[in-house]
Design goal:
By secondary structure, the protein is of the alpha+beta class. The protein has 8 helices and 10 strands. The strands form 2 sheets. Strands 3-2-1-5-8 form a 5-stranded mixed β-sheet, with no helix packed on it. A 5-stranded mixed β-sheet has the order 4-10-9-6-7, with helices on one face. α2 packs antiparallel against α3 and α3 runs antiparallel to α4. It is elongated. Bound molecules: copper (II) ion. Copper (II) ion binds next to loops.
Length: 352
């Protein structure tokens, strides 16, 4: 609400200034009624160019100061570090180029504003200049693109040699279900046509497939730290997107096909909760929640940091609510949790 009010106030102030300028103008005795811009008009426009430059620089500084804290904490996956470096370098380049070119653009607009009898020095064409402003972006962009392709190939390195845990992420309007491949680490075949809600076969698993019996269906993902995970995504209805921001991972879930994404988690949930920036963020959110609780509003329980799986495609009216908790823990904790889970075969046997 406050940002909206701030914007409205800024707009109103701008309108007020504009109206006052008009009144001031009207109160002057007109000496020049021509519609062609004169030196005074050009001077005003020159100064306005400068004012706008100061405005965008101030806005940039304000955004850095105000919104840096909402950024994600450090990457919790192996490939995340390289992904973040690529992102940071791209942002630094964009930031420097934009700051410099905006400054020059507005400065020159001011310096060479129209003045009677003044003519700026200009080139109709200049091969050397054109060469320079073509070759620099070509080199920089090629570098970024090549680095990006290299990073992408690294990230999409999905293979079975690293002994990954296979987990299916099943998306539907509006929830996630996860299926572990069990002891054999092979997921049983599944198809939406085989969904049998009455018999608790919510994922349409082929009961005749021998790989299916040991599969484990869960509503919360547990991952052992340092072990590669291979996620296989399916969707029941529309396009969804499995988004795990803390692991810098995202892959679309497409009805009728299986998509994949794999990563190795490197930081356990418990360790992440101790990171200073996470502690700070949790404190900030809980402060807001306490304030809301004092006013008697809803959803004010103290919040604790957890990794999440979110949907990142607007897939319908409850899209915002499509999320699942991910817990990264030690190998022992993971094994203990897994031992407590019921396999698909066991839950089928208990239904029939
Ligand atoms: Cu969705």
């Amino acid at each position: 609400m406050t940002p909206l009010l701030t914007i409205i106030v800024l707009i109103l102030v701008a309108i007020a200034i504009w109206q006052m300028t008009k009144i001031f103008e009207l109160s002057q005795i007109k000496t020049d009624n021509s519609q062609i811009a004169n030196d005074t008009d050009n001077k005003y426009n020159g100064y306005l160019m400068f004012a706008f430059l100061i405005f965008i620089y101030a806005l940039t500084i304000f955004s850095f100061w105000k919104y840096t804290k909402v950024l994600l904490p450090e990457a919790a996956s192996e490939h995340g570090e390289e992904y973040d470096s690529l992102m940071l370098v791209s942002f630094i380049i964009i930031f420097l180029v934009q700051t410099l070119t905006q400054g020059l653009l507005h400065y020159f607009a001011f310096k060479y504003r129209g003045e009677k009898g003044k003519k700026a020095l200009f080139f109709a064409d200049n091969d050397r200049l054109e060469f320079i402003w073509t070759i620099i972006p070509v080199i920089v962009l090629s570098g970024l693109i090549l680095w990006g392709l290299y990073a992408w190939t690294n990230i999409m390195d999905i293979n079975d040699e690293d002994d990954p845990i296979t987990i299916e992420l099943y998306a539907q309007q509006f929830s996630w279900t996860a299926r572990y491949a069990g002891d054999d680490n092979v997921l049983g075949d599944a198809n939406v046509r085989m969904i049998d809600i009455d018999n608790a076969n919510i994922l349409g698993i082929d009961m005749a497939d021998p790989n299916a019996a040991d599969d484990v269906i869960v509503r919360e993902i547990h991952l052992p730290v340092g072990r590669k995970v291979n996620f296989k995504m399916r969707s029941q209805d529309v396009l969804h997107s499995a988004y795990m921001p803390h692991f810098r991972a995202q892959m679309n879930c497409v009805p009728g096909m299986i998509t994949q994404f794999s990563f190795t988690p490197t930081i356990t949930t418990a360790e992440m909760r101790q990171k200073p920036d996470v502690v700070e963020k949790v404190k900030g959110i809980n402060k807001q929640r306490a304030e809301r609780a004092a006013k008697g509003e809803e959803n004010t329980d103290p919040w604790e940091f957890d990794y999440v799986l979110l949907c990142n495609k607007i897939c319908g009216k409850s899209h915002y609510n499509m999320q699942m908790k991910i817990i990264v823990e030690t190998e022992e904790e993971y094994n203990k949790w897994m031992a407590e889970q019921k396999s698909f075969g066991e839950s089928m046997a208990s239904v029939q």
